[in-house]
Amino acid sequence: MHNDPIEENLPWITPWFTKADPVGLKLNEYEKAILAKMAAGWHSTNKIALFDSLGESFGRKLVGNVMDKIVAANIRPEWEAVGKAQPANTIDDLIRLLWEPLPSQGFELSVEKTSSGVQIHCTHCPHADLGKSINGSEWLYHLVCSGDPHAAAGFNPAIGFKRTQTLMEGYPCCNHFYYLKENSNDQGKSH
């Protein structure tokens, strides 16, 4: 739909949600029905109205879970390919590729290296602003924020991810923390 703020601001997710039955995704019958209705209505209606309607029919939690599964099924292999294409896939490489470009896109963040990992505090996020402006923060959390741990795991399975709060949920910042998992000798490949 033209002038849909989600398609305008998050264009990469459209292909993820317009396939009624993505290959390799294990969905039960209710989840398949949700995805089919989401795919059918993706271009013809306001996304928030679509998600709200699905939430009324199937339950908001189940609709959110379907979104999370779709996002994970797409983000993880995308970041796996990014990691494999890099000369190295350390935490520093992930930060360089994922976070360093974001300030030029309106994000405000700080990066602090600690002895146990890398702490990122994001205090301004255009995606969170969008969520507020369209009264859709709940849904944008599933569409955007739920993919964060899967990006890290795809880039390098030895990289762990923790977060206890997001701007999308109304907190003053997102607190992303990346670390090497215990018993992991794979700190990232170097070619």
CATH architecture: 2-Layer Sandwich
The CATH topology is Muramoyl-pentapeptide Carboxypeptidase, domain 2
Q: How many domains make up the 3D coordinates? A: 1
Could you say which structural class the secondary elements and strand pairing correspond to? alpha+beta
Element order, helices and strands? HHHHHHEEHHHEE
**Gross morphology:** globular
The biggest beta sheet is recorded as: 4 strands, antiparallel
Number of helices: 9
Helix content: 40-55%
For the biggest β-sheet, the strand order reads 1-2-4-3
Protein name: L-2-amino-thiazoline-4-carboxylic acid hydrolase
InterPro entries: ATC_hydrolase-like
Pfam families: ATC_hydrolase
Give the secondary structure arrangement, pairings included.
Blueprint lengths: L4 H5 L4 H4 L11 H13 L5 H12 L1 H26 L5 H8 L9 E7 L2 E8 L1 H8 L3 H7 L4 H8 L3 E4 L11 E7 L11
Antiparallel strand pairs: 1-2, 2-4, 3-4
Helix pairs in contact: 3-4, 4-5, 5-8, 5-9, 7-8
